[in-house]
Design a protein that fits this description.
two-stranded antiparallel ribbon, mainly alpha
Length: 399
């Protein structure tokens, strides 16, 4: 395109100069003017130099094409994303630890304060007969003194050692076996109110080992069940349940989450620890037993959360593989852009070189045109002077 423009410009200038030379030659002949001045250059002598304008455009120019990212998989994965049940692990509040400590300590204090009233209640029952609501004279009290409950008849898991046909005192009316079993169970229940408490179920199978140890205080503290401890073990979960209910009203799983289970387990543990520090000390087996359902609930909560997390981790890994594929595609796109960018730079440099050459040629042509016009001006001035001189001579001749 630039070459055609240059050739057209050259032809136009040649045509102008040729027409001007023809006109001036005819004018000279008409007025018989001598060409004393330098002859006017012909149009062929003033032609612009022939210049070949060649533009070399790269033949391997490519427009980079970056494919669109495929987002269909993301929509599919979003549907597969499991909804996390955030009610399972609400955050602890600032008052949780103080309330947990207070509830556990109050439970231990309740057990301690019930010691004397419960001992008095047991003593009253031990002086009454079965018919009057007591257990006086029953066969399982035939052994007296310390450890008498461990020695015979008071183990809930060892009922076969009891002489059921001799259970009631001599000369007592005949009582059915079912009523006898009821009397035995009531006797065990009433003994939990005593200062010593009821032997742990199954401990009679190890009575010889326990007796050989010979420490009655340790036995009474750690190897018996006391109703006062049962009361404390019932109070602590109830107190924590009421507290969590008041602070988690909007939570659908208020009693099946990390917060409730851990707070209750902690309060029961504090109740056991404080109970050992008070006088008389007592290891709260019922509180330890009460921990079991909360530990099981905590395990189930943890299992459910782990299942949800496992599903999410699987989806995250799947997403990661998709991201790696998208990343590889982007890297290839970046490389193609770099290659095309280099091609554009090379093309720009070629165009700049052609532009510089064209600019140089155009400036030369303009200077050449200025030179031709200056010579034409001198020629026309001489022509005008000769014409005026010829007019004067003609005037003088006529005069």
């Amino acid at each position: 395109m630039d070459k055609d423009k240059a050739n057209n410009c050259k032809n136009n200038i040649d045509e102008i100069l040729t027409n001007q030379d023809t006109y001036l030659t005819a004018l000279e002949k008409e007025f018989n003017l001598e060409q004393e001045s330098a002859p006017v250059p012909s149009a062929t002598e003033k032609r612009l130099p022939k210049v070949e304008l060649t533009i070399h455009l790269p033949s391997n120019m490519l427009v980079p094409h970056i494919p669109d990212l495929n987002m269909e998989n993301w929509q599919q994965l979003y549907k597969e994303w499991p909804e996390m049940n955030y009610d399972l692990f609400p955050r602890w509040r600032s008052a949780d630890i103080p309330v947990m400590v207070i509830a556990g300590a109050v439970g231990a204090l309740i057990s301690n304060k019930l010691f004397e009233p419960f001992v008095t209640s047991h003593d009253n029952c031990s002086n009454k007969s079965f018919a009057n609501g007591g257990h006086s004279g029953e066969i399982i009290d035939v052994v007296r003194g310390k450890l008498h409950r461990l020695k015979y008849g008071h183990d809930l898991f060892n009922p076969m050692e009891v002489s059921w046909h001799e259970y009631f005192p001599p000369n007592s009316p005949d009582i059915a076996l079912g009523k006898t079993v009821f009397a035995w169970l009531r006797h065990l229940f009433q003994d939990t109110f005593s200062s010593e408490g009821l032997p742990l179920p199954g401990s009679s199978y190890f009575r010889e080992i326990i007796q050989d140890a010979g420490n009655y205080e340790i036995y009474k503290t750690f190897l018996t069940i006391k109703m006062r401890d049962i009361s404390a073990a019932a109070f602590v979960p109830l107190a924590m349940t009421l507290y969590v209910y008041g602070t988690e009203r909007g939570n659908k799983n208020k009693f099946f989450n990390y917060r409730y289970t851990t707070l209750t387990i902690g309060a029961l543990a504090i109740c056991i620890s404080v109970g050992l520090l008070l006088q008389p000390p007592s290891f709260n087996h019922p509180a330890l037993l009460a921990m079991i359902p909360f530990v099981v609930a905590l395990f189930k909560v943890n299992q459910q959360v782990n299942r949800l997390l496992k599903e999410r981790y699987a989806i995250i890994n799947k997403n990661d593989r998709i991201l790696q594929g998208q990343q590889q595609m982007l890297i290839e796109g970046y490389r193609q852009i770099d290659r095309d960018h280099q091609l554009l730079i090379d093309s720009f440099n070629q165009l700049k070189e052609i532009s510089d050459r064209s600019h140089f040629l155009i400036e030369g042509a303009i200077e050449h045109c200025h030179s031709i016009l200056a010579e034409q001006e001198d020629f026309l001035r001489d022509l005008e002077e000769k014409y005026l001189k010829g007019e004067q001579e003609l005037w003088q001749y006529r005069c």
